[in-house]
């Protein structure tokens, strides 16, 4: 791969991305490194991160507030698709990667860079998500991944950084690897690498332990328009605030923890802990509202689409042609997904206790077993005869 002269580096302020700056310049001959930190609601103060990048040798340090786009353009489509990887993980970290890739490409075009870079290692999913997304958005840009190639241990990486004035972490390094944004936290490594080990309570930040949750239930109503959440308890609320508020409510009741062994794209299994309170609750509520407003055949067919959709997000194919085609299908299904879902939060559970919609396909006088029943029971016998006819013919042939 030919080396670059001007690079835009995805920057988090951690050891690896900080060391990438002098490494790119001194080992790979890059003349200028511009860093880009995306504010996705991770809660860090980005001003110190910006200063650290400049002190580490960056010529310019960009900070982009992308929270609203993160929710509206990435999280909401995933909610409309009920996207749960392996039917459990709502893709809180994976959804951030195509957005960061887009910001990198836009910055590279604005500043005339001939390459972009990231600090991913060769073992995880994020390298694939970045590389493929960048290639989809601008196939002419080089993608550099120093941490994938430098072969240094963490101690060696810290020592290399110190040579160029990057201070070593002042506090004792946590054994865990943690990624956080507005949608949730992912925690891995350290003691969690043993799937038998129960996670310590100290790793959780967004969700309370069951023992610490309120002793009285809390009811919340979430309203949707075209499959997008727009209101909490009857009040219109902006996208970012909706996620933040629902994170707080659900997390306060211990809702939103996932402990799973997942299949990484690179072929290994990984034990992951996630905290995704709002995202899990929104998918749960949205799927329930679909049961009220979509026909049976659309609902059943969409389940297969949802599985493919979630795999594509996880595998870094957000900007692929198939993902675009699936988006069109999902958007069509959402036209009538309007209404409200009522949830009861209590002791680690978010239980749906009611739902209603102006587009409801639920017909009380057909569903009731009471005196108002309008269903023609006499029609059932003929229906069953025709429905079961192929089975009856098969049985006579096989059993004689």
TrEMBL record:
Q: Which InterPro entries match?
A: Arginosuc_syn_C, Arginosuc_syn_N, Arginosuc_synth, Arginosuc_synth_CS, Arginosuc_synth_type_1_subfam, AS_cat/multimer_dom_body, Rossmann-like_a/b/a_fold
Q: Which residues bind L-aspartate?
A: 121, 125-126
Q: Which residues form the Arginosuccinate synthase C-terminal domain?
A: 176-394
Alphabetical list of PROSITE patterns matching this protein: ARGININOSUCCIN_SYN_1, ARGININOSUCCIN_SYN_2
Tell me the subunit arrangement: Homotetramer.
Q: Which family does it belong to?
A: Belongs to the argininosuccinate synthase family. Type 1 subfamily.
Pathway, per record: Amino-acid biosynthesis; L-arginine biosynthesis; L-arginine from L-ornithine and carbamoyl phosphate: step 2/3
* Domain Arginosuccinate synthase-like N-terminal, residue spans: 6-167
Catalytic activity as recorded in UniProt: L-citrulline + L-aspartate + ATP = 2-(N(omega)-L-arginino)succinate + AMP + diphosphate + H(+)
Q: Which Pfam family, any one, appears in the UniProt record?
A: Arginosuc_syn_C
Q: Entry's Gene3D superfamilies?
A: Argininosuccinate synthetase, chain A, domain 2, HUPs, Single helix bin
* Subcellular location field: Cytoplasm
User: Where would you say this protein principally sits, based on its record?
Assistant: cytoplasm
Q: What is this protein called?
A: Argininosuccinate synthase
Q: Which UniProt keywords apply?
A: Amino-acid biosynthesis, Arginine biosynthesis, ATP-binding, Cytoplasm, Ligase, Nucleotide-binding
What are its GO cellular component terms? cytoplasm
The biological processes this protein is annotated with in GO are: argininosuccinate metabolic process; L-arginine biosynthetic process; urea cycle
């Amino acid at each position: 791969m030919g080396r670059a002269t001007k690079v835009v580096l995805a920057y988090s302020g951690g050891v690896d991305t900080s060391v990438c700056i002098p490494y790119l310049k001194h080992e790979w001959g890059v003349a200028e490194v511009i860093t880009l930190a995306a504010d996705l609601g991770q809660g860090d103060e980005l001003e110190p991160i910006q200063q650290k990048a400049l002190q580490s040798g960056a010529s310019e340090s960009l900070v982009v507030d992308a929270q609203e786009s993160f929710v509206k353009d990435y999280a909401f489509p995933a909610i409309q698709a009920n996207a749960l990887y392996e039917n459990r993980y709502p893709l809180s970290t994976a959804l951030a990667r195509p957005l960061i890739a887009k910001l990198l490409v836009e910055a590279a075009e604005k500043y005339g860079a001939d390459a972009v870079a990231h600090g991913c290692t060769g073992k995880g999913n994020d390298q694939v998500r970045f590389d493929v997304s960048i290639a989809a958005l601008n196939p002419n840009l080089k993608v550099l991944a120093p941490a994938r190639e430098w072969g240094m241990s963490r101690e060696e990486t810290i020592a290399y950084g110190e040579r160029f004035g990057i201070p070593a972490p002042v506090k004792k390094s946590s054994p865990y690897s943690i990624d956080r944004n507005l949608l949730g936290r992912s925690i891995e490594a350290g003691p969690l690498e043993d799937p038998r080990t129960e996670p310590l309570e100290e790793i959780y930040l967004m969700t309370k332990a069951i023992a610490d949750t309120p002793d009285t239930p809390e009811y919340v109503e979430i309203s949707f328009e075209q499959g997008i959440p727009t209101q909490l308890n009857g009040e219109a609320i902006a996208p970012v605030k909706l996620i933040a508020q629902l994170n707080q409510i659900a997390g306060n009741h211990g809702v939103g923890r996932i402990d799973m062994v997942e299949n990484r794209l690179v072929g290994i299994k990984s034990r992951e802990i996630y905290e995704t309170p709002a995202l899990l609750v929104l998918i749960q509520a949205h799927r329930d509202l679909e049961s009220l407003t979509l026909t049976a055949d659309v609902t059943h067919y969409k389940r297969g689409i949802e599985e493919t959709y979630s795999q594509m997000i996880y595998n870094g194919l957000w900007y692929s042609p198939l993902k675009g085609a699936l988006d069109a299908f999902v958007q069509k299904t959402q036209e009538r997904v309007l209404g409200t879902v009522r949830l009861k939060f209590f002791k680690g559970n978010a239980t749906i206790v009611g739902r209603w919609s102006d587009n409801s396909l639920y017909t009380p006088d057909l569903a009731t077993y009471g005196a108002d029943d309008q269903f023609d029971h006499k029609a059932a016998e003929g229906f069953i005869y025709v429905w079961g006819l192929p089975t009856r013919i098969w049985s006579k042939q096989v059993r004689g």
